[in-house]
Design goal:
six-stranded antiparallel barrel, 4 helices, 149 residues, alpha+beta
């Protein structure tokens, strides 16, 4: 599928913001709603991988309802920021090792968090991003859907 020039600009900004940042806010819901901060590594612009506390509310919600929302806003709304809709999937033991390796490459300080408590690895398959850059006049933000599988 050929991208339009606007979609290419949006994708370029998406890739830049993902690469320049390592933390996000992850909203989940099941019996109750919850919003948590997490470190991530991008496997590609539409697949993020992260670890979550094994006994935490976020993982419990994901197991009950894998539909999640993501916000990556490094310095507030006047810097480019991302909002996304995703489906979360808990990874197996091999996937967990891959996730931890990717996280340590991107953000070495996460080692202390990984060692502090039992964690599980999760992939987020983002179906749609909204990329907002107020300084560039992207308000409302530009939407970019994941390529067809």
């Amino acid at each position: 599928m050929q991208l339009t020039q606007a979609d290419e600009q949006t994708r370029d900004k998406l890739v830049r913001v993902l690469g320049e940042n390592s933390s996000m806010f992850l909203a989940t819901s099941a019996d109750d709603v919850w919003n948590a901060g997490a470190f991530y590594a991008e496997l590609d612009p539409f697949t993020l991988t992260l670890v979550l506390e094994a006994g935490g509310t976020t993982l419990r919600n994901i197991n009950a309802n894998p539909s999640v929302a993501v916000v990556i806003a490094p310095s507030g709304p006047f810097q480019p920021f991302l909002q996304g809709r995703a489906t979360a999937k808990v990874r197996d033991a091999e996937g967990k090792e891959e996730t931890i390796a990717a996280l340590l490459r991107k953000e070495p300080q996460i080692k202390a968090l990984i060692e502090a408590a039992p964690v599980e690895a999760v992939d987020l398959n983002v179906s749609r991003w909204r990329v907002t850059d107020i300084g560039e006049g992207w308000l409302p933000g530009r939407e970019l859907a994941a390529p067809p599988a």
